[in-house]
Fold this protein.
Amino acid sequence: MTSLPWLDQKHLWFPDPNEALDDPDGLLAIGGDLSTERLILAYQSGIFPWFSDDQPILWWSPDPRCVLFPPEIHIARSLRRTLNSQYFTITADQAFTRVIRLCAQTRAEGTWITKDMMASYSHLHRQGIAHSIEAWNPAGELVGGMYGVALGRCFFGESMFSLETNASRVLMVHLARQLEIWEYAIMDCQVESGHLLRMGARTIPRRRFLSILRKAVSARPGHDQWDMTWRWPGPERPVERP
């Protein structure tokens, strides 16, 4: 780890993601800060922060990268029954602070969502860059959530939680459908997990991810509104272009 670049808070830069370590996979740099400018540059470059309270800021760009192409969201038969029941109400940007706190509090293995991380992403949210997706049960209780960053036509998922069965899966389906309608190229899932793979995510080489990212982050999004409520089945998916 000592051979990795140490980032100076006074200089806004990152090394080439392809210089990241193989072990641990994707570790690229140490230090710097969590300023809005640095976080935006990180996401635009295919890099994200991931560290604990007792560590300096660690920056990562793993290879391969876990991603979800919005049209490829997988809806299992049991999940479709839950969607059709309309048990959950799904919203966006209604409870960002509660979502990020619950993402931190509900992880049994501990969390990298430190107080500094919460403050930095809350600032991104106030600037319209970070967003939350919420799942509410019929009693009006927040039972699932996700937060992430939207730049251009890319959504970078950071963390999610679920307090009721299928809550996080339902909100992922709604989010993926909306991203497809908005013609987003990709949802970055960072690191693979069984849950994500079952939802249709897959791993791709870092070089391909970076190639997709370069075009998508510079594309102008076809919308400016995240504050909404999603209903199933919602609007039809756009017709595929030839």
